[in-house]
Amino acid sequence: QSALTQPRSVSGSPGQSVTISCTGTSSDVGGYNYVSWYQHHPGKAPKLIIYDVFKRPSGVPDRFSGSKSGNTASLTISGLQAEDESDYYCCSYAGSYTDWAFGGGTKLTVL
Amino acid sequence: EVQLVESGGGLLQPGGSLRLSCVASGFTLSSSAMRWVRLAPGKGLEWVSSISSSGATTYYADSVKGRFTISRDSSKNTLYLQMNNLRVEDTALYYCAKGVNYHFDYWGQGTLVTVSS
Description:
The complex is a heterodimer.
Chain A: E1 9-12, E2 18-23, E3 35-40, E4 47-50, E5 64-69, E6 72-77, E7 86-93, E8 100-102, E9 106-110
Parallel strand pairs in A: 1-9
Antiparallel strand pairs in A: 2-6, 3-4, 3-7, 5-6, 7-8, 7-9
Chain B: E1 3-7, E2 10-12, E3 18-25, E4 33-39, E5 45-51, E6 58-60, E7 68-73, E8 78-83, E9 92-100, E10 103-107, E11 111-115
Parallel strand pairs in B: 2-11
Antiparallel strand pairs in B: 1-3, 3-8, 4-5, 4-9, 5-6, 7-8, 9-10, 9-11
């Protein structure tokens, strides 16, 4: 069982928006503004798409956005494109610099 | 361009040992914290171990503490994970990742470790 809870799957049509939730506790998501999100196409290297809750690395489209409320973080992908179909994982720092909590992953299907 | 390439995975029996390698290019290991993360079948990502940029401090998840050792060779710009007394539950795809502040900015493609009798 993963430390952070994500929906197993979400889906949307091209052009639509989807939101993936990531629920933790006050010891991780709720306690720090250090939530990050990773896009993972199986067989490839995971890619950082959001860090520090809402910041985007250079080169990541602004269709990807992050937010947090209490113990739940969210990743929103707007204007869905076929290439967005992938697995998405959330991650939160959990306080001791030895503790990184990950979610179980969400499979995004673009219909 | 930053690249991380893992190797060393394989199939082995419980109780066995294995050393994973991660060759870094595009940056020097001594400038960054480095981490190992694994993805077990049907499960989510799990942080395994970290080493500080200075190399002086190492950290381990409780699930591997006492069995795994993280290290690096700066002359080869290579990160290692020595895994001893392997268990079936250590079966996973192992990724090395470059750490920056509180996230992981670059990852390798992973190397598969299968522990089975």
